[in-house]
């Protein structure tokens, strides 16, 4: 079996390509740049075109809506990439970048797997549209043409690979047949970088990574505002976007804006924290959750993070309802007031994360691809 991986960017596509290449199964990686996180992929297997990345930045440089660039990047990458999808058995192509590529691959008899890291595009649009309107914005920062494009991709791909049970349910709810859906959580951890620190007497420090309305950051800030306890800190990592800034400035909560960090510095932030909180409105299965767990942090998540694939409520962390600052505050307070319970969850989280290696991800993906390449039914478990 030979697999071509096609992606206009990074995501975890390079990890998939690395796993395939290490087992002699990678036909080629079609992308916009070289590996950036130390992925070991044979250079002769990589086909690169940086122009779509330049095209994406054009509208921003001209002062136009940046979402236009996302659409132009998707279209320009796909038009170029379609010439590299033949002579393999399986094409694994990331959503937004695979409409023409999928059509070309199918003409050559190649099985096509569309990779979707978030919920069904229509579900994502509805959740984010509702959320942005709740906070006084007219619409979410999305280009509707990308929604239309993904709906076409869903129709034309042989299979759609989803990363969590939450995402899987969103496709089933939209009428996609279960036997077209591959449930392959696409996470792994670098345990040499993300690992626990020895216990110390640090302040009780809450860390959130990736800040946006989509990730529910305002509800976390509202939750912290309810907590009138000493020695509590809130660290926000990832940079504050423009649509979130006004909400944070009026929240009346002190926080540390850590900004954007390289992975090595992010690992240090995790090790200096007490709990990780991600109250998302819509996600697939964020890498940040696994990184926090591997660093010895209990995690507080909404069901809409896909976190049920990673934790059991009450063991490695706590699952709270979406858009519920009171529930988030209660969850944080329960760990603040019971250090023994927090440490037990921290140890369980680190233990659970150790099983989520990149090799294990490779095993999951390759088992699925071998099955579908052979024309066999996909297991539904």
CATH homologous superfamily identity of the largest domain: Glycogen Phosphorylase B
Q: Helix content range of the residues, please?
A: 40-55%
Shape: globular
Q: In CATH terms, what is the fold-level topology of the largest domain?
A: Rossmann fold
| Spatial strand arrangement across the major sheet | 3-2-1-4-5-6-7
> Residue-averaged pLDDT, rounded?
94
CATH class of the largest domain: Alpha Beta
Residue stretches low in confidence (pLDDT < 50, at least 5 long) are none
Helix tally?
A: 14
| Proportion of residues in extended strands | 5-15%
Major sheet size, sense and barrel closure: 7 strands, parallel
CATH architecture of the largest domain: 3-Layer(aba) Sandwich
- How large, in whole angstroms, is the Cα Rg? 21 Å
């Amino acid at each position: 079996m030979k697999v071509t991986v096609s992606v206009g960017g990074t995501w975890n596509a390079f990890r998939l390509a690395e796993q395939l290449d290490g087992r002699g199964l990678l036909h080629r990686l079609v992308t916009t740049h070289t590996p950036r996180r130390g992925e070991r992929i044979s250079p002769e297997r990589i086909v690169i075109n940086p122009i779509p990345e330049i095209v994406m930045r054009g509208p921003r440089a001209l002062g136009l809506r940046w979402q236009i660039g996302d659409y132009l990047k998707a279209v320009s990458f796909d038009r170029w990439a379609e010439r590299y999808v033949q002579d393999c058995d399986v094409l694994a192509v990331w959503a937004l970048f695979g409409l023409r590529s999928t059509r070309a691959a199918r003409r050559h008899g190649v099985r096509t797997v569309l990779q979707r890291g978030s919920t069904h595009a229509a579900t994502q649009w509805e959740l984010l549209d509702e959320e942005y309107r709740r906070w006084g914005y007219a619409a979410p920062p999305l280009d509707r043409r990308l929604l239309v494009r993904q709906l076409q991709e869903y129709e034309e791909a042989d299979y759609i690979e989803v990363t969590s049970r939450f995402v899987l349910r969103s496709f089933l709810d939209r009428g996609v047949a279960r036997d077209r859906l591959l449930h392959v959580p696409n996470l792994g951890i670098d345990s040499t970088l993300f690992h626990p620190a020895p216990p110390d007497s640090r302040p009780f420090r809450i860390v959130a990574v990736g800040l946006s309305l989509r990730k529910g950051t305002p509800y976390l800030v509202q939750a912290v505002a309810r907590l009138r306890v000493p020695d509590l800190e809130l660290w926000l990592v990832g940079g504050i976007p423009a649509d979130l800034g006004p909400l944070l400035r009026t929240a009346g909560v002190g926080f540390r804006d850590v900004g954007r960090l390289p992975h090595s510095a992010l690992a240090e932030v995790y090790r200096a924290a007490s709990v990780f909180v991600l109250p998302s409105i819509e996600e697939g299965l964020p890498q940040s959750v696994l990184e926090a767990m591997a660093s010895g942090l209990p995690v507080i998540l909404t069901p809409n993070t896909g976190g049920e694939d990673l934790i059991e409520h009450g063991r490695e962390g706590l699952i709270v309802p979406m858009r519920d600052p009171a529930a988030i505050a209660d969850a944080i307070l329960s760990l603040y007031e019971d250090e023994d319970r927090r440490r037990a969850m921290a140890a369980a989280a680190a233990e659970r994360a150790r099983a989520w290696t990149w090799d294990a991800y490779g095993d999951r993906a390759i088992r699925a691809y071998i099955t579908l390449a052979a024309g066999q039914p996909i297991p539904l478990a």
